[in-house]
Amino acid sequence: MRRPRADLEAAHKNLTRRATLLGGMQLMFVTGLAARMQYLQLEQADEYRLLAEENRINIRLIPPERGEIFDRNGVQLARNVPSYRIVIVRENAGDVKTVIQRLQKLVELDPEELDAALEEMRRSAPFLPVTIAENVSWDTVSKVSVNAPALPGITPEVGLTRYYPMGSDYAHVLGYVGPVSDYDLEKIENPDQLLRIPRFQIGKVGVEAKYEERLRGKAGAKRVEVNATGRVMRELSRKQGTAGQDLQLTIDANLQSYVQARLGEESASAIVIDVQNGDLMAIASSPTFDPNLFVQGISVADYRALTQNTFRPLASKSVQGTYPPGSTFKMITAMAALEDGLIDADDTVYCPGHLEVAGRRFHCWKRVGHGWMDLANSLKQSCDVYYYDLALKVGIEKISAMANRFGLGVRHDLPMSAVAQGLTPTKAWKQSTYQQDWRIGDTVNASIGQGYMLASPIQLAVMAARIATGRSVSPRLIKTIDGVETPSGAGEAMGLNQGHLAQVRRAMYEVVNDRRGTAYGSRSIAEGMRIAGKTGTSQVRNITAEERARGVTRNEDLPWERRDHALFVNFAPFDNPRYAVCVVVEHGGGGSTAAAPIARDVTLQALYGGEPPLDAYPRKDRGRISAQQERLREVRPIARGVGSPEEQA
Amino acid sequence: MSYLEYTVKHVPSGARKILFLNWPLALLLASVAGIGFLMLYSVAGGTFSTWAEPQAKRFAVGFLLMILVAMVPIWFWRSMAGVAYGVSVLLLLAVEFFGSVGMGAQRWIDLGFMRLQPSELMKITLVMALAAYYDALPQKRTSRPLWVILPLILIFLPTALVLRQPDLGTAILLLTAGGGLMFVAGVHWAYFAAVVTAAVGLVTAVFQSRGTPWQLLKDYQYRRIDTFLDPSQDPLGAGYHITQSKIALGSGGWTGRGFMQGTQSRLNFLPEKHTDFIFTTLAEEFGFVGGFTLLALYALIILFCVTSALMNRDRFSNLLILGIALNFFLFFAVNMSMVMGLAPVVGVPLPLVSYGGSAMLVLMLAFGLVQSAHVHRPR
User: Does the beta-carbon distance from A55 to B244 stay under 8 Å?
Assistant: First the structure.
């Protein structure tokens, strides 16, 4: 078909018009695209650049090195050691099953841990390392390294973990660290990002927990470039963190180790405090446990064994345990009466073996009675009736107030867990607690440290230190933080009559050094090393009339948990006091037989700064003491020089 | 106008034709392809063999193909228009029955040595068919309803087949290109007004059909539309592509982050960075300067095509060149709108730059037709 030229001309004219129009529309669109490009790339460039950087850069925390802990002489008590673990990278391993089977021929893998690792591998990206064996020995690491060609994707990694070279000696003082738990995180408001690092260790109890902030340090950080799947491509920069601050305790490692060993497996506690400045030289509880068990999470079996032990090894009895102070409280009753001016040291009271108060008969421990007693004799022989009489004259309020001045019923400021307040009862306290009136019998019981009266071993040690110095000595456990000395615990003068204090001290001297004293068997005979102390035997039961009728009153005949607590407090040397000591043996029987001998050994050990010469002991004890010293030398870890995991292995 | 009417004596013959090619246009095409090789080299992490090398080889083949097609007189191509259209529709039907399924859609036929995507071919043959139709149709009949319905059938048949694959992007491209050609051919204004009204109605229908048994699009297509409308609602899921793409573009700034220094593409934050999203890599690494340069090159290609068309007195050539230029324009306009967050992610590659065989070959074939029209224009 032929088209006329005119038609073609018209068509071309029309086409030119339309094509120009369409071309114009296209040009507009291109301009629009350019404008959009300009908006995104020039106007919003900064914002998008930031977003691109956020995409690309991840901040990874570098855990700081935890501060170390030393004793007063620089002996290391807690440090960080490398811990090795075996990790697998799925992507590099290829056939994971075969590789793990080969690994199992070399290393014993915990099936539980292995299952968890396999599960984690299924969930995580193939290039992320997954731990399959934790806390393995250097030996295992070498085996794995040597066989590396046969174990693709498997590498040993090193991290830092806490180690307590002295093991169980400091379990109750330092406490321990452990992996952060969800429970820990919940308790902390706005927790440090560090704590979210898996298996990061924080202080759980004791000094480790109380000084957590200072020991932990500040995290470092590295900036890494990651790709869209999170794989690290390279490290961009790194900022080192600040290591935690070191702590130095007032504890003397040598003495601490001795005391812990001397207590043995008894359920007991002992404290040595420097009376001049309040430094705690030793603070021991037994039985104890190995804090290293907790560092990477304790096994269920180990934990059950610790919690089901009747002797409560996890309890730090020296600060947490409270006991009726028994006769060790008599110095307080005496001081209250003397300071009140109600009696003189020479005034005498007749002890017929009991005292009738408000129609009730209160017995002296010596049923036949002590006869005429003055202050020195009553303390020396621990006559109860003398103190019943004093208490009736002074009243409970003044006794309690005096107890508070000597640090009883007061929570001492110590960086340890669950420090007990004890109890010094008053009329108001009884009214508010039991809605009952104070009865005169309660005062009589309180006078000899029974009834409601409760004190912890640390409080009794502080009491002895205050008696020895007349100053309000307060206990100090941390000597330096990051090299800076903490304030001394020497305290101010208590404002007590020096004469009265001297009379009480003299009486305490006679308790140990007079032939009729209750602790005469536990004396030291070295000149200048004489001990002044007081025994205590505190009842944990009421002897029923029925039992009395049957005649079952001897401690040895009772089940362990109903036997009396044995207590002893002392300071030494008598003429120039340096240390105060408190020993409490739970359900140990009499203070003079169970607690005083331990206290003497501990005191002499502290005074001589090591093993005391046998000359310090009375001649008849020397054979037994010598044998005991030999036995303790063998069990003390410090004496054997055990200190590092390598040596242990 | 039949080929007898061409003043053959003025048309160059033999190898001399090569001198009469539209060389500036060929140079522009080569420049754009060159930018493509550079970017493919970059996104492959600095290796030539992954994408850049095969792409360069294909471009070389495509360039030869273009010259080969240009050597053949345009009147031959006009006479082949109907056959080409018919073969393309048959191939689309073949895809419907024998095609391979990829990315949830049937798009190509595996020929062994290459994967043929008939929908790519269809874009060109539809233009050829429409150009031939309007070349034959007297101007006064152009707007008569009967003569309007015929080209509409020519357009809707392949569009429906492509939509069934389903390939929404190509379907829209076919519709728009076909409609554009009818507009240039001089169909009356009123029809376009009607079409715009109908389009609005269709969009409404598409959205209304969602969740009903007669749902017009697949779920993922709806999600793409949702994501386009509000990418921030799901930045790590469906909106991820658009969000990351905008970040890459924006972080480029004026001059970009440097060749091979684009963190978004190098660290795999960009999806399909060697195909549909390759423009973002360019814009990230060479910034506004790089992105604008490519856009300008594309605009110049369109400009050269339109100029070439308007200079030509042959109606078939006019319509063919304008239709191909429109197709080319739609390619890059839709792709760039998509990566800049102006259009939903519909899977349209960036012409001559995105990695891909059949799209490149078909485009070069189309430019061969443009060159042929240029060489054999009436003088």
Answer: yes
Examine the domain organization and report whether A186 and A269 are in the same domain.
Answer: no
Q: What is the mean pLDDT of each run of 10 residues along chain B (379 residues)?
A: 50 80 93 93 87 91 93 91 93 77 58 73 93 88 87 92 82 90 89 86 84 78 72 62 83 84 78 83 91 95 93 90 94 90 81 86 93 88
Q: What are phi and psi of A186, to 5 degrees?
A: -65, -35
What is the pLDDT at residue B227?
A: 67
Q: In terms of domains, do A361 and A476 share one?
A: yes
Q: Residue A379 falls within a domain, yes or no?
A: yes
Q: Is residue A133 part of a domain?
A: yes
Tell me what ipTM this predicted complex has. 0.88
Q: Residue A42 domain-assigned?
A: no
CB of B263 less than 8 A from some CB of A: yes
Q: Do A567 and A593 meet the contact criterion of CB atoms below 8 Å apart?
A: no
**Is residue A206 domain-shared with residue A263, that is, in the same domain?**
no
Same domain, A330 and A187: no
How close is the nearest chain B Cα to the Cα of A411, in Å?
56
pLDDT at A333: 95
Strand order in the sheet with A280-286: A280-286, A268-274, A579-585, A565-572, A532-538
Interface check for B371 against chain A (CB to CB < 8 A): the answer is no
Which residues span the domain enclosing B266?
3-375
Q: Tell me the residue range of the domain where A580 lies.
A: 253-301+316-640
Instruction: Verify whether residue A327 is a known catalytic residue.
Output: yes
CA distance B108 to B366: 19
* A11 interfaces chain B, CB cutoff of 8 Å: yes
Closest chain B residue to A7, measured at CA: B139
**Catalytic option among A327, A447, A472, A592:** A327
Identify from A33, A44, A47 which residue to disrupt to test chain B contact, counting B C-beta atoms within 10 A and taking the largest count: A33
pLDDT at residue A261 in the model: 92
**Pair A424, A285 in one domain:** yes
Q: Check if the beta carbon of residue A78 is closer than 8 Å to that of residue A69.
A: yes
Phi, psi of A205 (to 5 degrees): -140, 170
pLDDT tens profile A526-542 = 989 999 999 999 887 66
Write out chain A residues lying below 8 Å of B249, CB-based: 37, 40-41, 48
Tell me whether residues B267 and A22 touch, CB distance under 8 A. Answer: no
| Most B CBs within 10 Å, among A9, A15, A57, A234, to test the B interface | A15
B66 sits in the region (left: phi over 0; alpha: psi -120 to 50; else beta) called alpha
Give the three-state DSSP class for A106.
helix
Nearest chain B CA: its distance from A13 CA (Å): 10
Residues A607 and A508 in one domain: yes
**Residue A580 amino acid letter:** A
In a domain, A45, yes or no: no
Selection from B377, B274, B366, B259 nearest residue B318 by Cα? B377
Task: Answer whether B291 sits within 8 Å of A47, measured CB to CB.
Answer: no
Residues in B touching A55 (Cβ below 8 Å): 244, 247, 263-264, 267, 269
State the CATH number of the domain containing residue A335.
3.40.710.10
How many structural domains are present in chain B?
1
A230 — contact with chain B (CB < 8 Å)? no
Touching check for A24 and chain B: CB below 8 Å?
no
Q: Which residues on neighbouring strands pair with residue A566, listed in sequence order?
A: A537, A585
DSSP-derived secondary structure letter, A591: I
What pLDDT does B108 receive? 67
- How many domains are there within chain A? 2
CA distances from A329 to A326, A424, A508, B228 (A): 6, 11, 12, 84
Q: Which of A249, A270, A290 is the last residue of a domain?
A: A249
Residue from A41, A58, A231 whose CB has the most chain B CBs within 10 Å, to mutate:
A41
Q: Which of A111-125, A480-494, B3-17, B78-92 has the lowest mean pLDDT?
A: B3-17
